[in-house]
Amino acid sequence: MGTVGGVEVVIRSGTWVRLKAIPPDVAALDERTRAIFDYCLGQLYPVEEMVHARGSDIVLRVLDISGDIDHRFGGFMNDIRVEDAYLEVVPGPELGYRHSG
């Protein structure tokens, strides 16, 4: 859950978020993945879905980053999975705002 203008907003599919911090676990990942997270830091993305981290109750938000990342780093349909603590909810279409993506 996040807030926009002091109003609580439930993060769900279609909610726009900004990656406000990089999870500490990313430091242990490969160089390409770290570079992708570095690039995404501060950027806006819509939440595609919610999943649970393998073998735990931790909720991760799946962000579709393919528009920014596929042509820069390779791959196809890239996404990142991030806990709410590293995301900031921003006004999006569900709140009557539009983003260029």
Write up what this structure looks like.
With 101 residues, this protein is α+β, with helices and mostly antiparallel strands. The chain has one domain (2-95): SH3 type barrels. The protein is built from two helices and seven strands; from the N terminus they run βββαββαββ. The strands form two sheets. A five-stranded antiparallel β-sheet has the order 6-5-4-3-7, with no helix packed on it. It has a two-stranded antiparallel sheet with strand order 1-2. The protein is globular, with a radius of gyration of 13 Å. The model has no long low-confidence stretch (mean pLDDT 84).
CATH topology: SH3 type barrels
Q: What class would the helix/strand composition place it in?
A: alpha+beta
Radius of gyration equals 13 Å
Mean pLDDT figure = 84
- Stretches where pLDDT falls below 50 for ≥5 residues? none
Oligomer: single chain
Euclidean distance between termini CA atoms: 21 Å
Sheet with the most strands, sense and barrel status: 5 strands, antiparallel
Question: Please, how many helices?
Answer: 2
Overall number of strands: 7
| Residues in helices, as a percent range | 10-25%
* Backbone shape: globular
Please indicate the percent range of residues in DSSP E strands (runs of 2 or more): 25-35%
